[in-house]
What does this fold into?
Amino acid sequence: MTDGWNWRQPDGTPMPAYPPTSVPPSAAPPAATPGAPAPGASPWWSDALSDPWRDPRTPAAVVVTPVRPSGSIDPEPVVDPDVGPRRGLAQILLVPLITALLAGALGGALGYGFSVRNGAGGGAVLGAQGSEAPAAAQRRPDSLAGVAERLRPSVVTVRVGGRGGSSLGSGFVASADGYVITNDHVVAGGSGSATIVFSDGSTSPAKLVGQDPESDIAVLKTSRTGLSPVEFGDSDAIAVGDPVLAFGSPLSLANTVTAGIVSALDRTIQAGEPGGTTRYYAAIQTDAAVNQGNSGGPLVDGAGRVIGVNSVIKSLASDEQEAGNIGLAFAIPINQAKRLTQEIIDTGKARRTVIGAQVTNAGAGAAVGVRLSAVDRSGPAAAAGLRTGDVILKFDGRPLTEPGDLIALVRKYAPGSVVTVEYRRGSAQQNVSVTLAADVK
It folds into this structure.
C-alpha cells in the first residue's frame, strides 16, 4: 500500500526517498543502455519512470516471447507499443503536416489531369473518346469503301462534242494501254473524238475505235498508257440479291458511287430513238441509284469485279432530260460487253448473234411463248428442225412472253453457242438444241 507518494517495503517500513543521497553498490542502477540518461543525471531515469503509479524498478521495455512448440521457428518479438523513447511535439506535428501537403499535391495533380481530359479551361471536348477506330471505319479491302477506292482510278468521264452540241457520260479502263469501254449512245452523233477525264482530274484525248449501236457498246482509245484496268467478273454467275456498286458521273458529278443489289436478271430491254436503231439486250436490273451521265460506267459486284455496263434507266418523267432515278436501272451483262469489245478492238466491228428466224406474238389467249413467223432455210433454227408457226416457249430454260425476249436472249450469247429450245407444235411440246450463228453483214 502507499502512504502519500511513498512506497513501503514488504516489512512495512518506508522505502528510501528517491533519488537517494547515496546509493549503495547493490542498488546501483544497471549499466547504461542506448537512449538512457547517463548515471548522475537529475533524474537518471526517463520521463516515463516519473509516473507515480509505476514501479521505478520495472524495466522500461517489456519483451514478450510466446511459448512455441519444439522445432518451430522463432516468431518476431511482440513489443509493447506504448513503451519506448517519447517523441517531441515538433515531431508529432511534422508527420501529419507532411501527409497533408502530399495529399494536397496529389489531389491537385489528379484534378488538373481530369480537367484537361474533359476540356475544362480549354474549350469543350465533344463526343466520346474511343480507344481505336471501329471495325466499320477501318475500311478493309473487301468493304464497300475498299472496293470504291480500288475502282476509282479505273473509272472515267467521257466528254464528246458534235454537231448537236456536247454529251457527257461515263466509261471505264479495259486495258493498261488505253482502251476504254462506254455506251454507243454516249458517243453517237459525235465527231469521232472524245475527251477522257480521269478520277484525278487529268484529261486525255481519245479516238473512237468502233461501236455497235444494236448492243449499245462503243470502244475509245487514249494515248495514255500505264493505266489501271478493271477486273472483269462473270455476269452469268451473279444472283438476284447480290450487292453491287454503280460508278460514274451522274448529272456531271464525277467520281460518284452508289450501292444497291441485283434486282432481276435477263430483263429484256428494248431501247432506241424513234426511227433509229432499236437496241435489244437481256439486262441486269439493279436498284442502285443511276441517273443521266451514269451511262457507260461500270456496275461491279461486292468484290469489285465489273459485271455490267450501266446503260438505261426507267423514269416517271416524260422528258428524257428530266428523267431521274426511281430505283430501276439496267446494265448490259459484262460477258456480252467484253466479247463485243474484243471483237471491235480486233476487227473494228462486232458480230451480231442470230437464230435465223423472225418472231411475233404467240396469239390471243397465249400466256407464254412467241411464234416463229418466218424461218431462214439456211439459218440455225431451220438446221435444228424448227418450222414457221412453231411457238418457242423457253430459250435456254427462260420463259418467253414477248418477241423481244427471244431477240435479247439470243444476242446475249456468242455465235457458236449451243442452247436448248423448248417449243410447241400443234399440241405437242418438244425440246431441240440450236447452234447460234453470227449475222453475215
Q: What stands out?
A: Residues 89-117 form the longest helix (29 residues). The chain has a mean pLDDT of 80. Helices lie at 89-117, 144-151, 184-187, 334-347, 380-383, 403-412.
